[in-house]
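[step 3/7] fold_predict: job queued, chain A
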Amino acid sequence: MLTEGNNYAYDSSEMRKYVLSTRAHNTVLVDGMEQNRKKTHCWHDDMLTRHSGLQASLSLHVDACRASYDNGYGDEADKTVCHERSVYFVKKLSGLPPFAIIVDRLIASAGIHSYEIQYHLDVDKVTTNRLNITAAPLSIIAPTDNECDVSLSVEYGVMEPEWNGWTADSAVQGDFRPIYIAKYILKGQNIRFATLLLPMDDSKGLIVGLEGSNQIEDTKLCVKLADGRELNFDENEWLERKM
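[step 4/7] structure written:
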């Protein structure tokens, strides 16, 4: 449903630099800064047996996983912000087509930050309606009633002030092209933000909305259906949360 910068030629080009960057992936920038794990990372042999911290649960109806990144952002690998992402793949539910809900939690020890949640879309056309995105064969649905400052922007093949919105079709030099990148920009300190990714084979428009507060401790989600029904969920039911 999503793409990214992909693999590219091992050269010194801007495209090579781009595919190695955080900007080329479906994750989060903090205050415009990229992940910088290598600044402080040091290999130890015991890492081969150390638990990664990934939580996962598989079931007949929902597959769930959660992991976090806390190794720093920017040139100085600022570790004051931790990004935790939970992904829920809803396979079988009330006759609905399969869909995924992504829940991002941005947890800062202090201060107000700008968080950019990025989705790369390899499609011919992207349209937006408030915070919802249509990028056939995919719809991205986000809560519209937010307590934090949230905006949505879409870019396509940007080179200035830095590269964004590109994908490589092979590792051959010059074999790359522009794509769309949608960015949810959130401003606050500790924020939960959910998005629902829905394949467009939902021709009847069964799913029309998503509700979920921005409170970091909240685990409730509500999927709104076209027939007026509301499907209420608790993340704890899908994956035990340990805070």
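[step 5/7] annotate
The longest strand covers residues 81-90.
Residues 14-33+54-238 form a domain with the Beta-galactosidase; Chain A, domain 5 fold (CATH 2.70.98.70).
exit 0
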